[in-house]
Amino acid sequence: MSKKKITIVGAGYVGLSLAALLCQKHHVVVLDISKEKVDAINQKQSPIKDEQISQVLKQNHISLVATQNKESAYLHAEVVFVCVPTNYDPEKNYFDTKYVDEVIQDGMQLNPNAIYVIKSTIPVGYTEMIQHMYHSDTIFFSPEFLREDHALYDNLYPSRIIIGSDQKEGHLVGELLKESALKLDVVVLHTSSTNAEAIKLFSNTYLAMRISYFNELDTFAEIRGLDTKDIIKGVSLDPRIGAFYNNPSFGYGGYCLPKDTKQLLSNYEWVPQNLIEAIVISNETRKDHIVDMIMKKEVDMIGIYRLTMKKDSDNMRDSSIFGVIQRLKDKGKKVMIYEPLIKETLLDGTPVFHNLEEFKRLAGLVVCNRMEPELIDIKHKVYTRDIFYSDT
Description:
Blueprint: E1 5-9, H1 13-22, E2 27-31, H2 35-42, H3 51-57, E3 64-67, H4 70-74, E4 79-82, E5 88-89, E6 94-95, H5 98-110, E7 115-118, H6 126-134, E8 139-141, H7 151-156, E9 161-163, H8 168-180, E10 188-190, H9 193-224, H10 228-236, H11 257-267, H12 275-295, E11 301-305, H13 320-330, E12 334-338, E13 346-347, E14 350-353, H14 356-362, E15 365-367, E16 382-383
Parallel strand pairs: 1-2, 1-4, 2-3, 4-7, 7-8, 9-10, 11-12, 11-15, 12-14, 15-16
Antiparallel strand pairs: 5-6, 13-14
């Protein structure tokens, strides 16, 4: 494929991993409102935590620049990837798509001839509405399926590539992504954008369901005094279930699962269902159970070890531990936090410690979603449901 000018709007996990993927064969411009992120990228530094992205940005042969200037970013762009955040709005009971709306509006004004590929997660039916609004079939949706801290890897070795268009523009983008991947047998599925939107939401909701399933198994075992590890091992020996993505936690969280499950549920407004709603409710029930177990420990000071979702992560977004903290505070418990990524010494009135040894000494009980070697010396006062000592 000939070298193309590609604009990527948004320098988060999705946008930056795409930029790192495509800049090795094409000229990529990253547009972001954050001067800090733009400066970091232009200095060959990654503004997000992903080792592979950091390595790519340091290479000399890549063609990648970042800017805050809309006009220069859209000018002459052949393909524009829209990778801006869409957060779930609990009042509207829907994704807030205002940033996607703004990007499409700006892009169509400045460069109506470009192909616009929405990577932001959106409600089912959104792209079709936008296509009608702008009388354009060169705007379509292509979902991403990225794991935290493995964003570039998952673009290089994608499980699948879903393109919400079967027209020539859709096939061009499909080939663009496929030729940049290192995986040789990538399946590319061309479908409608509405189907692609549903694929994204149903995929993440299935993952949330699997997490909820093993969490509820663990709740049962913990209350009944059974061995969670043996039960999960026995269940997972069935090849139809498999021994993966089965480690209990305090609940699902992160960038996608909480908001995607709620969005899918809202799309079921006039459709019969029981399971989808149960998945959303189950995550809250799990946090209630975790807090009930902690309360039984009857300690004066509860220490929360890390707010991040996973080991070696900098992602605290919708972390399940926040729900646990709030419930504990509502019950009148004293709570302290160890989180070296937070510079402040208070978070919503809760003390934040940066010295691990002091934190371990003062905490009567240490609560952690994922066990770490630095807590082994106080294992007797650690509460975790990390059965397999892994992030999955």
